[in-house]
Specification:
Layout: H1 7-47, H2 52-66, H3 70-89, H4 98-124, H5 129-136, H6 141-171, H7 183-194, H8 197-229
């Protein structure tokens, strides 16, 4: 199987794999994580607001997103977003938003469901005495969340948030179904062009494994450091 293994095809493809593929993967992961974290925090606050209607809407959204395969959501948004754009702008035809915008919206909406549950657990881990003390000092609900609860919740949940981002980094490889050139897509194109499937897919697996392992090791170190601070 490895008698004809060609390292040269990997070396020659390195600039394309990392400058084109990996740079896109990192950008999509970063933007999706930031958007998902902001949207997820809003969903978590809706569920914890004490207003039944808001809580039920947020709960339904989380349950709906978490019950669907990610690849199905990618296809769904890819075909749905143009019609939403047409509805918002009143255009006569569906608005073309492109594969990148569709994939970014998909990951933000999908990951927000997972980030919201992490944030909800983080907020609930804060002692009830602290919001009560902030309320006694005259802080509003928004000020209590901003200055007292959320900073501590983010610190407590940081390792889990990073772990979810690692999962997101791996999931971004699914954008190949939209013919986007992420890292795996770039490796696949080189493999198909040069007829070197074994070399390129094995190299792609090693790169994903190495990056994920290093990030996981960093998470364990961070967890140990946060445990000492507690």
């Amino acid at each position: 199987m490895f008698s004809n293994f060609d390292f040269g095809v990997i070396i020659r493809a390195l600039p394309y794999l990392f400058y084109e593929g990996m740079s896109f993967t990192v950008m999509l992961t970063t933007l999706s994580a930031l958007g998902g974290l902001i949207f997820g925090t809003a969903i978590a606050l809706m569920r914890l607001s004490g207003l039944k209607t808001l809580g039920r809407i947020a709960g339904l959204y989380v349950d709906f997103m978490r019950s669907l395969p990610l690849v199905l959501v990618i296809f769904w948004f890819y075909f749905l977003v143009p019609y939403i754009g047409q509805w918002l702008t009143g255009a006569s035809r569906p608005i073309s938003v492109g594969a990148f915008a569709s994939s970014l919206i998909t990951f933000i909406m999908f990951e927000a469901a997972y980030f919201s549950e992490i944030m909800r657990a983080g907020i609930q881990s804060i002692s009830r005495g602290q919001p009560a003390a902030a309320n006694a000092l005259g802080l509003t609900y928004a000020q209590t969340m901003r200055y007292v609860v959320l900073p501590q919740a983010f610190r407590n949940m940081l390792p889990v948030l990073i772990t979810q981002t690692i999962v997101l980094f791996q999931d971004t490889s699914l954008v190949y179904v939209l013919s986007i050139t992420d890292f795996l897509g770039a490796a696949s194109k080189v493999a198909q062009r040069d007829g070197r499937l074994v070399e390129m897919y094995l190299f792609a697996a090693i790169v994903y494994f190495t990056i994920s392992c290093i990030a996981s090791f960093g998470v364990r170190r961070l967890q140990a450091r946060i445990a000492i601070l507690r």
